[in-house]
Amino acid sequence: MSEQTVTAATRFPTALDALSVATIRTLCMDAVQAAGSGHPGTPMAMAPVAYTLWQRFLRFDPADPIWPNRDRFVLSSGHASTLLYALLHLADVKAVNRAYESLADPAVSLDDLRRFRQMDSRCPGHPEYRWTSGVEATTGPLGTGAATSVGLAVASRWLAAYFNRPGYMLFDFDVFALCGDGDLMEGVAAEAASLAGHLGLANLCWIYDSNRISIEGSTDLAFTEDVATRFVGYGWKIIQVDDANDMAVLGDTFDSFRGERHRPTLVIVNSHIGYGAPTKQGTAAAHGEPLGETEVRAAKQFYGWPPDSSFLVPDGVYKHVADGIGARGRALRDEWTQTFERYRGDYPRLAEALVQMQHRRLPDDWDADIPTFPADAGGMATRDSSGRVLNSVARNVSWLLGGAADLAPSTKTALTFTGAGDFQLGNSQGRNLHFGVREFTAAAVASGLSLAKARPYWSTFLVFSDFARGAIRLSALMELPVVHIFTHDSIGVGEDGPTHQPVEQLASLRAIPGLLVIRPADANEVAEAWRVIMRLRREPVALVLTRQAVPTLDRTVYAPAQGLARGGYVLADPADGDHPEVILIGTGSEVHLAVSAYERLSAGGIRVRVVSMPCWELFEQQSADYRDLVLPPSVTARVAVEQAATFGWERYVGVGGAVLGMQTFGASAPLGALLTRFGFTPEVLVRVAWEQVRAASGKAGRPELMSARTEGGSSDRPGADRRDRACGDGAQPGT
Description:
By secondary structure, the chain is α/β, with parallel strands linked by helices. It has three domains: 4-334, 3-Layer(aba) Sandwich (Rossmann fold), CATH 3.40.50.970; 376-549, Rossmann fold (3-Layer(aba) Sandwich), CATH 3.40.50; 566-734, Rossmann fold. It has a six-stranded parallel beta sheet with strand order 1-9-10-6-5-2, sandwiched between helices. It is elongated and about 90 Å long. Residues 1-10, 275-286 and 700-735 have low confidence and may be disordered.
């Protein structure tokens, strides 16, 4: 096995190093004890490792924690958050506000540590990006931080390839992630490690705290694999460190990583939970419990610490850390700033692009090439129109890059213009990323790219968004403008059947706070969706697109597609301008079904309004007056139509309204047969709308509409003949 083992005798080079490590350990113990909850064991065990990295190697300026070329440290073992908070405190990292203005306040004060896990403390239970300066990524769900670090490493490579010029090394930052047994048990870490090895990300170092303890006890219960051999198979360099306290060995280890040019590095550190404290470390400390006053006193005595002290930082520690990471980081950042000022003179356009990217601004005329699509009854799939718009935008926004989870030909997300290229080992400037069949990692890597201020997208089929949900959720939690592109958005997938036909996914994605779910109706709504998406600075988007062709609406007859920016808009109204009797609401391909029903109902004398509702979240951001203008409270006859679970639509149709949607999974059949089986036909929608009008008015049915009840087939509710099948009774109108 290709493996390197480093050994040495010296443990702590100086007394101040030993004192600083003990300070980190005791601060972590005290914070957990004060909170009455938390995980003290891993911070105590890994304090020497993290301290060595920060004090001697990390290129990070505490006074400017958003310096673009800083090394990144991602605490994937987020339960060990006090370790990071103690480092941020001792290094005197400065807070940065949302406008990217450095402030004088510390990112983590002693009071924040004293209030660990308490409301409004800068020390929440797990690290939270945007909440605590110096936290590079929100972590906690195990494995996800490690996967996100791969995205940061990709970003470093891409930024270097795009911006660096001879004599100007603007980007060469390294990425470190601290992982534990739990991280490496999670499948997403395996996906990400495989991808990192394939790409030869030599700027990536995972530090694996191999302490052999998990929540249930010894890892021997469920995790006995040879991790080193697995990572050798991924193409990683392996370094074994037998003693987590040996700072000389750790220094040689990080030197060895810095010297590696071809492979990512896994540092396996054999540690012990709560290293150094004499008792109880394999139980309470591993299970997220405080040590208890007696154990804290015993541990402090073992470290030569005043046993009755609390949150003690001895004289000399702050200065010692400032003379290490503080002085080194300041010098490196000053040198970078001077280099960038010279770069501005020689490469003004690239320099301006870098400033725009870092501040999430767009170039002038970025949308100048977005096409306008002519009316076309045959139309095109929205995945196709999205691919055209994406390429038009990417040509003008050079830091827009991404790819697919092995589905680019189907999701139409490949950048095809000259010079786009593929990001691979040996071509770091390529803008097409190939994630393989790794949806979770694709979404996590996209978040990592966004953390470095690129504008990333990734794609798969909508039904497979389930695989990536954890990373999608974290993109919303971190307020990252990642574009999650999902195609094959409905039972319109057809013959592939229920396993590939999404039903509950739209409702599931809409439930994520801060995520905009946009399902455009035609090519021009797609174009407007991208205009909205590219202007976002803190909101991720799930862009949901069709595989099947949909008509391109004639916007001289129907309302302009710019209404998409407001989430929902009136697409069509009664020809005489009178107040509507019934409102039909649709998204995506079902808007065209609503338009067909509108034309039939209007011909029969019913006053109908059609509302296109591509994005609930944007609609909810509008004023109450606007929402009432689109959906007048006085019009209670309403029908929503969407080829998905009906959950949530009651907010728009009301108690008495109807929803034509899916109540079961789909079926394997051609599209036309599926639409008929599940009731997504103009005839059924006309019938349901007529029933709504009748219920709202209390009048008998109009004769001219009665034929619509049987025109499309049985008068039974759609899908009723499937009730005795395993998948239930089919889609049907319902409240």
